[in-house]
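Task: complex structure prediction.
Instruction: return structure tokens for all chains below.
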Amino acid sequence: MGGTPLAPGPRTEVSYVNSTSTPAANPAAAGGPSAQRDSRLTALLIVIALLAGAVLQIWVPPGRWTAIVGAGLASWVVVALAVFVPGRLRQTVAGFRFTSTLLIGLAVFAILGTLILQGKPEALYRARYGAVAPVIIGLRLDDIFHGLPFAGLMALFGAAVMMSASLRWPLRGRNLGFFVAHVGLLTSLGGAAASSGLGIRGRIDLHAGGDVARELVVTKGGIATGEIAPLGFDLKLDKFDLVLYESEYRVGYYEKARVRDEDGNVVEQWRLKTSFDPDTTKHRLPGGDSFRLEAVYPDFQLVPQVSPVAQGGSPALQAVVDGKARWLMDGESVQTGDGRLAVAFGWGSPAAPEGVLTAVLVSGAARQVTIHTSDGDATQPLREGAPLLGGAVKIASLLPSAQRSSSYGTASAEWRNPAASLETMEGGYPRRELVLASRPRAVMLARGGALVFEKRDQEAKAFLSHVTATRGDDVVNATVAVNDPLSFHGWTLYQVNYNPKDPTYSGIEAVYDPGVPFVFLGFALICLGVFHMFYIAPRFAAGVKRDQPAGPAAAA
Amino acid sequence: MLQYVLAEHPAFAATTGLYGAAVALYAAAWISTKRLVGRVATAAMAAAVAINLFLVLYRAYEAGREPFKSLFESLVFLALCFGLLYLVMEGLYKTRIFGVLAAIFTSGLMVYALAKWDAEIVKMPPALRSPWFMPHVLVYFVGYAAVAFATVVALVQLLAARSPAVHRLVTNARAGTVLTGKALDLDQIAYDSIRFGFVLLTLGLLIGSVWAKSAWGDFWVWDPKENWSLVTWLVYAAYLHLRKVKGWRGERAAWLAIVGFAVVMFTYLGMGILPTAEESAHVYSGS
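Output:
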């Protein structure tokens, strides 16, 4: 837009409220005789359009053709009347007062369309709107934008646009924008009518490597009409890709919120308010409490631990077999994976496990080691840290009185089974809990709210249908995605559906829309026209004023 | 909540605080004869806008996408658009008379964002992953900011007609009021803003329509949000047409500008209460 369009107009010495513009200051302004006639005619035309539409609707049900033909015909009738009937009709229809009133009328219809559900079965209206339902159904407010009263207003609007644009002919620099914007409106409305009346829309269900589609199931409002329409070309799905966002782990903070359920009842529901990275930073929570993850275990596992105790323990031996350290309590043994070698520990004299070719038998009380093989036994004193059998076994340490426990640890740095030790601080009191992402549960907070360590599932990022469209020698290989349709021989193909249980399936919507070029052209004209009208035309007007000679004659 | 925001989101707290401080400073500039007071007010507003910009950019960096997917994000973004537009208008029209209401509006947006606090960064669904998303929202929000500014002007216009104190503010040259020494043409300023906003609302509506066509195959599906965007456009179109009708400037136009902005706010925030909200593809999940 640049700075110029925003710039205020030439500053003049005027009061804070334009004194010549208020009805009180200028009684003639708001209510001259011609203005009153305009107002009456405006009201009359609008009432006639609405009433005629409402009455005719008794015989002509709402529908796209009803709206198009009704609005189109009525529009030309009004234009013809305005041109040929003497009097103020032409000025009124082309006037700003008439258009303003129509714009407000159209706004009222648009609002009604958001207050009343559109295109639903009658039973739903009776259930939902009660005593008002017969009025809604009787006046066909259930399909308000395809009914004749709305078509009547659109007809008047179309006539007003045509008449006001025609008044700007022949074109000059200062009224070019107005003309172009209004021609743009008509072009867009015409294009939209062509889209609605002549367009075809339907579904094509494709499977990767499956049959070639040559036709579509015609739909209206998303529901199949039972008609089949030919595509005019072959369409084949080569491959369907569901692209996902990467999954991630977060500490989510949830709060209860009152929401309406499907039946309109107010219910309480937990809602995610914010979330935090799974790091060890201390975080404050909206309720005033705080939390931190004391430790994070990406690949959580319980690590067995043996620690010495003064009383009540039992002897324990730490042996390293095949490079892995293990704690053995009194009477326990450990074997290698192939079962050829074992270490057995006992306070007295442990026995060799059955079926093992070589066993290292450690006696805690005697502090001696017996190497048991098929050739016989060889005994030697226990020396902690000394390798046995060429390094295959090492006795790391012997504790006369120990207790077995376990601690939290991680088997690797990979995020395979994440867990965390979560410490909350509520009212100055700490509380610790182990939380696992694989089994998410809420850590409830006393002041309301809950923390959950959770995995964010992979969400859909894109649905990609790799298709081949063929018509004669014209072959196109393309990818159809949401927001990236494929146009081929007059049809446009949209990605609209997929099946999470069938990765080969893709739902494509085919649309034939002959109105598109007109709608786009209209949009461009509206943009250019509006910009010109507000930011270029005033310069022409200023230029005209400058060129006028000063003096009493000019002022007159 | 405040402790949480201060600790976890200091830039958010700073922005809101500075917008709040700007309210007080602009109010002080109304009565002060010292130029410095007005300049400090503008500086506070500019600093708030600068940190607001940082918030929006940082959010975009954190989320790896456009920073206006959720209601919370869009409120912060709207505050930025309005704050920035206000500063431009303050420079263009050389007046700080609207500063108090402008700063109240921006701080109000931030406080409302705080009250909703749907700060979670959500992933962009395939339907929103479109090159049209950014221009559609950007154009609309600057347009919203422009019509919001017009509403601020209209409010001052209505107050000036009723309160001698406000009347004096818009006609007297003070540091915090009129810097040119000339009375303000409030009606013209409101019109200029609405004109600018209307161009953007038109562009936003058409971009949305083109986007809908590329995503769903339809320009217009009579979705509640679409309808209310159309209502917004129709109301401002009526405003611009009515200015050509005698008797529709001054107070009447000011009231219509306020009604237009009420419709804008309903379009932006009120869709959830409509009985047809469940049919809409546009209603904010966090609203």
